């Protein structure tokens, strides 16, 4: 028997994250995990995974200008005043729920995207004869990769916190693309 027949209204949901955004998200997650913990640095498969992530990033950046409403940067990139207001409300325990990304999550996403671009460029540079064996570049590449992993942990913890705070499973939403209205 359906919930509506029992007198309980079914929760209304909205498609927030389109398939391309979700594919990008999970491609980056998988790529970062396997390149950090499975495939050896500098090996062919490590490079190809890096190229896939770099390609996904390039497509996602383009999609940020021409994609669906919640995928566009104009929808979620906050100005400083909006970010500060949100952070103050969050510290006071009064942050509003957002259908798309909240301002703090938006800054995290932009930071991770910038770091993904940097790790992609440094990884590519390591394949060039001009930089082959350059220890400073290898160290920089590894530092950026570790920063991505550290911020990803914070990102996941923040998603869990916000899921509990607003009583909504954000990780499931990133799989299905749907959030409650």
Automatic annotation (TrEMBL):
Highest taxon, organism lineage: Bacteria
One Gene Ontology term, aspect cellular component: plasma membrane
Domain Cytochrome b561 bacterial/Ni-hydrogenase intervals: 16-177
Localization, UniProt: Cell membrane
Key words, A-Z: Cell membrane, Membrane, Transmembrane, Transmembrane helix
Coiled-coil blocks: none
Bilayer disposition of the protein: Multi-pass membrane protein
Any one GO BP annotation for this protein: respiratory electron transport chain
Alphabetized Pfam families for the sequence: Ni_hydr_CYTB
Transmembrane segment boundaries: 20-39, 45-63, 104-123, 143-161
GO MF, one annotated term: electron transfer activity
UniProt name for this protein: Cytochrome B
Originating species: Prosthecodimorpha hirschii
